[in-house]
Structures are given as C-alpha cells and as structure tokens.
Amino acid sequence: MKLVIAIVQDKDSNRLSNALVREGFRATKLASTGGFLRAGNTTFIIGIEDERVHEVLNVIRANCKVRDQLVSPVSPMGSTTDSYIPFPVEVQVGGAAVFVVPVERFEHF
C-alpha cells in the first residue's frame, strides 16, 4: 500500500477532486498554504494499493496544469520598505507536487 500526497493549486482543486471521485479514488482534501508565493493550495491525501498508483498519478497529471503568473516578491527582511519597489516577476505555478510513500500499516475503524 502507498500514500500519495498531492499538493495542487486551488484553481485545479475542484477539477481534481471530481476526477478522483469519478475514477473511484477516495481522498482526504486539506487546505494548505505554499511558502514561496504564500498562496492557497490544496493537499490531497490518497491511500492506494501499489498496483493502482500509476492510475491515480495519471488522474493528477491530467487535471493539474502548470501556468504562468505574475507575482510581486515579498520585501527583503531588515530593510526599509520606503526604498523597496517590488517589480512583478513571472513564475510558473500550478501543476502538482506529488509524494508517494510506503504505508507500513493501515487501520480503518
């Protein structure tokens, strides 16, 4: 058994959730916040049999897209904000960060 932890952008969250249900996967959905952009995202936790890991990864891949976004960097620590003028920077956001970890034991009560 494996535990799939998928961190996705909020924009992809509902589409992924619906696709997982449609394909028969059960998942726990948690609100989370990213460190770099300080933007909201969603973390899905999915317990799955070893032989179905590739299926759930395909569903995640098909429903979580990378996109470009302009962001304003956070002001540097220790400097005055009067002299700091943030210039928007284009970064890639979205997609999914996915971790697949082994499960030693699973109990359901």
From TrEMBL:
InterPro entries per UniProt: CdAMP_rec, N-reg_PII-like_a/b, N-reg_PII/ATP_PRibTrfase_C
Pfam families, per database record: CdAMP_rec
SUPFAM superfamilies for this protein: GlnB-like
Protein name as catalogued: Cyclic-di-AMP receptor
Organism, scientific name: Paenibacillus lycopersici
